[in-house]
Amino acid sequence: xxxPLRRRASRALVWLALAxxxxxxxxxxxxxxxxxxxxxxxxxxxxxxxLGADATRSARSAAGQxxxxxxxxxxxxxPISGPLAFEPQRDNFTWARIGVSQxxxxxxxxxxxxxxxxxxxxxxxxxxxxxxRIVKVQAALAWISLAYARQRLTALDTVLQRLExxxxxxxxxxxxxxxxxxxxxxxxxxxxxxxxRRDELVSMVGRARADLTRWTGExxxxxxxPIPDFTVEPARLRASLRQHPTLVLAGATIxxxxxxxxxxxxxxxxxxxxxxSYQRRDPRxxxxxxxxxxxxxxxxxxxxxxPLIAARAADANMARAGADASLRxxxxxxxxxxxxxxxxxxxxxxxxxxxxxxxxxxxxLETGSYSAGRATLTDxxxxxxxxxxxxxxxxxxxxxxxxxxxxxILLFGSADQ
Length: 417
Hints:
By secondary structure, this protein is an alpha+beta fold. Helices cover about 70% and strands about 10% of the residues. Strands 1-2-3-4 form a four-stranded antiparallel beta sheet, with no helix packed on it. The model is unreliable at about 1-25 and about 170-180 (pLDDT under 50). It is found in: Cell outer membrane.
């Protein structure tokens, strides 16, 4: 009996070991830095851009190469009329031919094609950088949104608990004659309105969690750790603006347009070709070998090459104008963001240092007055509703300040900021 029991125990241990190996590890809550790292690693949009860049890089080796050679097979000078019609064995001018030919584009064109391939790689890498910056910023904003949504919910629950104690005690106050029956209804009404706001905050937490899932890939993400202190340094942000991924992409786009212009200009130079063939005749006659060179004649540049060159030059100028427009747009966006951040910070400080303390003081005073019989339950309910508004307003403004800081630093800062 002991042997089967031991076998069962060993089997159970084996199954537990296999389960521990095969089951995925349960992901813990994400800190701010971990969320950004996971977004940068797992974001499908970044992977797509990176794969596109890899594809462009793989195609680089084919740029500027000679075209494939051509094999030619044929019969030349086959008689179809006259006394020797359809009798090629009697005609010493009929032969079977096999040959190869090779087109050789001019060297400037091949160099331009290689330059165009390098420019494509630069654009693809720059697009990957732009997407990585977008994902990083959006993941940061989603994490901040979830963190403050939870704080709002916790703060409102605290106010609700305090108000509920008064509402539960209100029937006793009515029975003792300290409060009127209508005041009980006012307390319940205020409690219901705060519960409505709580439902909104629960929904906000769900939306924020869904947004963080979008950027990190976590099915049910939680957050851990403190909210970072985003110290905005305007001078440093302005100095690093030139390295913004959008401007890097604009520069790469200019490089590609210039490469297209060089390809068009190379079309004005002639291309070459070589031909080599072997002609096999009747054994009574000798065989031939032929060789030749072809040279392209770009004689109609005014109607063929020059219009294309003008079009590519216009594209290059358009790319430069687009880069200037992007710089102006980013500069305006940065200055607008700095101005809004200063305004939001002042409003948050006012809510934190003035509005919320006043609301807390009002609750304290109304509670004391209620205990002394000089305030009603309605006054208590109004004071708690005002306190909830003040606390949520403070958290809203703090969240806005944090989101402003994260956006400014992660969007406009350099890679090491």
